[in-house]
Amino acid sequence: MAKTQSNRASLDKQPREVAAMFDGVARRYDVTNTVISAGQDRYWRWATRKALALRPGERLLDLAAGTGVSTLELRKSGAWCLAADFSKGMLAAGRFRDVPMVAADAMALPFADNSFDAVTISFGLRNVADTDLALREMLRVAKPGGRLVVCEFSTPVIPVFRTLYLEYLMKALPKVARVVSSNPDAYVYLAESIPDWPNQRRLAMRIAANGWASVKWRNLTGGVVALHRAYKLG
Ligand SMILES: C[S@@+](CC[C@H](N)C(=O)[O-])C[C@H]1O[C@@H](n2cnc3c(N)ncnc32)[C@H](O)[C@@H]1O
């Protein structure tokens, strides 16, 4: 029990606990994701790149980028893509990747106002201690007219599928993580934090309440994941 408490963050998400948990996950993070999502992670990353519609020469901030696996996909667009995360363990595990990386806290970004054409965060916003502050920081560093794409676990829309998915999250996922992950306890946190997270409509309202305009979303894999898109008014 003591081990469990020390290796995963609690649902009130103390930043230091979250960073330590991801430091522990880092070594086998990429492979664990692909296994527990049955390969869907690649589709979700591809869909995020399409939603951002980046052009060569644009500047993108990939926030909570972890090992840079999300950034690598985005770089295929030809845009300049910067990976930022506050877990030094995650950044170190991805340092073999040819993407620029910076240690940064989503709640106090070390960038000037109006710096990026687009800002994105994949499977990260749910983990940030203060969601609203992170959304406002992303708005601050985006250029006028700049776009936001949030890729995050969400609520499956078909009730029967939702029930089966919750069973998978609570029962099977921790067992699978025990086989593949370098910190299986973190996946208990993952399983618990997903049902706790706002559904598609509520997250859209939250994004809009923090100053982003024209918020829309699209479900992926029946709503297991949702892509929220928005703009900074010019
Ligand atoms: C599930 S990983 C996502 C990594 C990557 N974006 C991906 O798609 O695989 C979540 C990341 O959020 C980062 N994170 C959580 N809170 C953060 C914060 N306040 N500032 C920066 N990064 C944060 C963690 O360190 C972790 O690397």
TrEMBL record:
Function text: Methyltransferase required for the conversion of demethylmenaquinol (DMKH2) to menaquinol (MKH2).
NCBIfam families (UniProt xref): MenG_MenH_UbiE, PRK00216.1-2
The protein's Enzyme Commission number: 2.1.1.163
Gene Ontology MF annotations: demethylmenaquinone methyltransferase activity
Name of the molecule in the record: Demethylmenaquinone methyltransferase
UniProt keyword terms in alphabetical order: Menaquinone biosynthesis, Methyltransferase, S-adenosyl-L-methionine, Transferase
GO biological process, any: methylation
Residues annotated as binding S-adenosyl-L-methionine: T67, D85, D105, A106, S122
Pathway involvement of the protein, from the record: Quinol/quinone metabolism; menaquinone biosynthesis; menaquinol from 1,4-dihydroxy-2-naphthoate: step 2/2
Native source organism of the sequence: Nocardia amamiensis
Domain of life: Bacteria
Catalysis performed (reactions): a 2-demethylmenaquinol + S-adenosyl-L-methionine = a menaquinol + S-adenosyl-L-homocysteine + H(+)
Pfam families: Ubie_methyltran
Family assignment from sequence similarity: Belongs to the class I-like SAM-binding methyltransferase superfamily. MenG/UbiE family.
